[in-house]
Design a protein that fits this description.
81 residues; mainly alpha
C-alpha cells in the first residue's frame, strides 16, 4: 500500500453524518470511504482518456460493401477462414 499522507478537509455537516453512518454500516472509517471514492473518481477519469486517443477518431472513417469486416477481418487480410 502507498504511504498515506495526512490532510484536512471540510464537509457540510449533513455529509459528515452520512459518511459516519456509512462507515459504521461497512465497519470501516470515514477516511477509507473518502480514499476509495477519490480513487474510483480517478479510475473513471482515466477510463475517459481513451476517447482522446487519436485512434478513436478513426472509428467510422471508412466503410466496406462487405459489412462484416469486424467479424471476418482475418479472412479478408490473410485469407483465413
Amino acid at each position: 500500500m502507498a504511504t498515506l499522507k495526512r490532510t484536512q478537509m471540510y464537509f457540510p455537516e449533513e455529509v459528515i453524518i452520512e459518511l459516519k453512518k456509512k462507515a459504521s454500516e461497512e465497519r470501516t472509517t470515514v477516511a477509507n470511504i473518502v480514499r476509495t471514492a477519490v480513487s474510483e473518481l480517478f479510475k473513471k477519469e482515466k477510463a475517459k482518456n481513451w476517447m482522446q486517443d487519436p485512434l478513436w477518431n478513426m472509428i467510422g472513417s471508412s466503410s466496406s460493401k462487405d459489412g462484416d469486416l469486424s467479424v471476418n477481418h482475418d479472412k479478408y487480410l490473410y485469407g483465413k477462414k
